[in-house]
Amino acid sequence: MFKSKYVRNILTLVSSALFAQILALLLTPILTRLYSPEEFGVFTAFISYSGTLAVFIFLSLELAIVKCKSSRELSSVLGLMLVISLVLLSVLCITIYLESAFYTFIGFDKLFDIKELVLLGVLFSATNLVLNQFITRKEKFSVYATSQVSFVALRFVFSYLFFYLGYTQYGLVFGFTLATILIIIYLSYSTDIYKESLSLRKVHLFAAFRKHKQLVIFNTPSNIINMLIINFPLFLILKNYGLEAAGLFGLAYRMVMLPVTLVNKAVGQVIYRRFSAMSISDKGMLSFIIKNILFLALSFPGFVLVYIFGEEIFSFIFGVEWGVAGVYATLMSPFIFLSFVISPLSYYFVAYDKSDLLMIISTLFLGVLILASVLMDFVDESDFIKTYTLINVAYYITVLVVIMLGVKRAQLNAKNKEYY
Questions:
Q1: SS in 3 state form for the chain?
Q2: Is the pLDDT confidence value at 4 over 70?
Q3: What pLDDT digit, counting tens, does each position of 243-277 carry?
């Protein structure tokens, strides 16, 4: 089994992701004792806004890098990406420097003092998207694995160093940015991206767009929705309750989501392979799904501990001033548990070409969240997090019901075909 190149690649990616996440968990309590919740709020807002805005830069055309069949096609795609990114980055720079009212509306005005750094963050995040596609194209997964772990270590070292140099307000941002630059240099050298040529001939650019326009039309909206689902709560908390609340929420969310991330990368891949090997109408499908639910539900006592002792746990691990983050973790624990159990099963939508259905469900619930945020008058951030949790509980239950109904319908159709 382990001689398979595909399996080796999966194991390399999963193991490196696990190690990087665990390393980040071990190092974070040191940084929380150096930096305040407000300073973490600046950092959390920085990575959220730069990551979200980076999704627009290439309009998902970076996904075409892996699909290119020839060096000529690749050079045309790279040329098209360059043209699009220059246009969109110019628009972004102008609107941010003019401090457009739109950015105030989404809470970005809290970062106007470091808007140049945010623009750099957008550029670096977009560059990483491209480099990751080249790693996949050239199958240099060990390079990616090394970069993940190295990034976590470098970010910690630089953040620690900037604190002792007196750059406390933006030390986390500086540390993240410097680590990102070094990783980009490493990945660029390892993938030989600087050796790639690009074509700016109009005929080649139009040909590349015609061939890959589906990525622009379908993947870009999908990516934007996914980013908004993840980051919208932070944007709202930052806008309405300030940097300190955003820092507390950001830490709480990252820590309670850590087991979900680890399980998705590990167990999710196993479930995905099993789904891919089974027919949706397989008689053992429902049994397989239920067994996985029961297995993952064994984690329930751990989430009960977070629900009961969240404030005490966070105060002990991260420092007394982070106790409020534990309160937020307590409020989110019900939907995090459901995410832990149900998220790995969402590979069902990928395995059976139903990704559009999952996107419809996600879009509907994002709309519900935005509508609730506009219409409801929240007393404080805790009140909003309660609503956010209820909406997510409804979302994950809906996802599970859709999966079960989809399997039952497929089995019924298969049975009817056998009968006739």
A1: CCCCHHHHHHHHHHHHHHHHHHHHHHHHHHHHCCCCHHHHHHHHHHHHHHHHHHHHHCCCHHHHHHHCCCHHHHHHHHHHHHHHHHHHHHHHHHHHHCCCHHHHHCCHHHHHHHHHHHHHHHHHHHHHHHHHHHHHHHCCHHHHHHHHHHHHHHHHHHHHHHHHCCCCCCHHHHHHHHHHHHHHHHHHHHHCHHHCCCCCCHHHHHHHHHHHHHHHHHHHHHHHHHHHHHHHHHHHHHHHHCHHHHHHHHHHHHHHHHHHHHHHHHHHHHHHHHHHHCCCCCCCHHHHHHHHHHHHHHHHHHHHHHHHHHHHHHHHHHCHHHHHHHHHHHHHHHHHHHHHHHHHHHHHHHHCCCHHHHHHHHHHHHHHHHHHHHHCCCCCHHHHHHHHHHHHHHHHHHHHHHHHHHHHHHHHHHHHHHHC
A2: no
A3: 999 999 999 998 888 877 776 666 776 777 778 77
